[in-house]
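Lecture notes, part 5. Sequence design as translation. It can be helpful to think of inverse folding as translation between two languages: the language of shapes and the language of residues. The source text, in structure tokens, appears below.
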């Protein structure tokens, strides 16, 4: 044999060609059996991750919309609460004014009634005074007639009558 380390003989070339062909067939077969399913699995995983990201983005968008809606509702509720408080304050002020007006009317009524009663009492006192004067006058007339009087006697009778009536009758 030759002293060569590596010799290219037909058998070696044939074995190499068969090995390369077997390797190519094995590569195609493994590609079909292993690589394609692995690629499909990776593709499915990518699609799953993409769908999860889409769902997360959609959920975030929905959450922001809900937050906006809730903030709008909260603002509306706060506005309604403020309006209710404002209405309650207005009603309380109206009620206060009504109570004050009613009390004022009652005070005016009581004052008018008291003034009317005072006027009635004055009239009653005047009537009593008139009756007393008539009584005194008739008593004086009776005394004048009974005593044929002269002027001194008449002045004396008037003084006596006035003393009998007292000073209080004329002062009221």
């Amino acid at each position: 044999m030759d002293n060569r380390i590596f010799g290219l003989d037909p058998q070696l070339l044939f074995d190499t060609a068969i090995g390369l062909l077997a390797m190519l067939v094995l590569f195609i077969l493994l590609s079909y059996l292993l690589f394609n399913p692995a690629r499909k699995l990776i593709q499915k995983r990518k699609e799953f991750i993409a769908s999860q990201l889409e769902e997360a983005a959609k959920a975030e968008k929905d959450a922001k919309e809900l937050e906006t809606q809730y903030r709008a509702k909260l603002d509306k509720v706060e506005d309604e609460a403020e309006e209710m408080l404002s209405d309650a304050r207005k009603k309380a002020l109206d009620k206060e004014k009504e109570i004050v007006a009613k009390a004022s009317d009652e005070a005016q009524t009581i004052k008018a009634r008291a003034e009317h009663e005072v006027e009635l009492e004055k009239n009653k006192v005047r009537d009593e005074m008139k009756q007393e004067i008539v009584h005194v006058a008739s008593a004086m007339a009776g005394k004048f007639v009974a005593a044929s009087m002269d002027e001194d006697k008449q002045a004396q009778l008037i003084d006596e009558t006035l003393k009998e009536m007292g000073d209080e009758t004329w002062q009221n």
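The translated text above is only one of many valid answers, since several sequences can fold into similar shapes. Residues 13-171 form one domain.
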